């Protein structure tokens, strides 16, 4: 999914200038990195918000178009209004085709309904992590990572080392020796009661 953001360079800086931009229907921002000069931007607020709602916007290499020139960037930071739920500011970082990037990528959990711990044990899938930091080249960055829980028994977990990753992608945590749990199947009150009933008294 290719996402493009149209922006223009802004000359006015400071809190007052940013406030005026927002009142005029634009969002102030900045682009930096890649061995080039950082400069401030302004982006149409409605267009940005439409893209911002997509999960891929937060975990994909984006195409930033400024004055007709395209650059590959990542969304690195943003500020939201605490009440209005509007975007107040965005930071974009340029990415290189030859240097690895670190990005948080969301997990998509599949086959929870057929997992033995759910289907037979009456448990529920608990999402221990909903995203993880990955390292890869920009061209290899996945929009999401599938976590297949089809084989999980009740009380068992699936860890980072058990998840199949696309070629060229690695988990940063795992590379540092932290094989964290991603999901587990926990007992519900109903399944605990059922187990107690099935167990004969000593």
From TrEMBL:
GO molecular function terms listed in the Swiss-Prot or TrEMBL record: 5S rRNA binding; structural constituent of ribosome
Keyword set, alphabetical order? Ribonucleoprotein, Ribosomal protein, RNA-binding, rRNA-binding
Q: Which GO terms describe its cellular component?
A: cytosolic large ribosomal subunit
- Subunit structure and binding partners: Part of the 50S ribosomal subunit; part of the 5S rRNA/L5/L18/L25 subcomplex. Contacts the 5S rRNA. Binds to the 5S rRNA independently of L5 and L18.
Q: Which NCBIfam families match?
A: bL25_bact_ctc, PRK05618.1-2, PRK05618.1-5, PRK05943.1
Query: Domain Large ribosomal subunit protein bL25 L25 spans what residues?
Result: 5-92
Which GO BP terms apply?
Answer: translation
Fetch the Gene3D superfamilies from UniProt.
Ribosomal protein L25, beta domain, Ribosomal Protein L25, Chain P
Q: Any idea what this protein is called?
A: Large ribosomal subunit protein bL25
Q: Which family does it belong to?
A: Belongs to the bacterial ribosomal protein bL25 family. CTC subfamily.
Q: What does this protein do?
A: This is one of the proteins that binds to the 5S RNA in the ribosome where it forms part of the central protuberance.
Q: Which Pfam families match?
A: Ribosomal_L25p, Ribosomal_TL5_C
* Highest taxon of the lineage: Bacteria
**Large ribosomal subunit protein bL25 beta domain mapped to chain residues:** 100-188
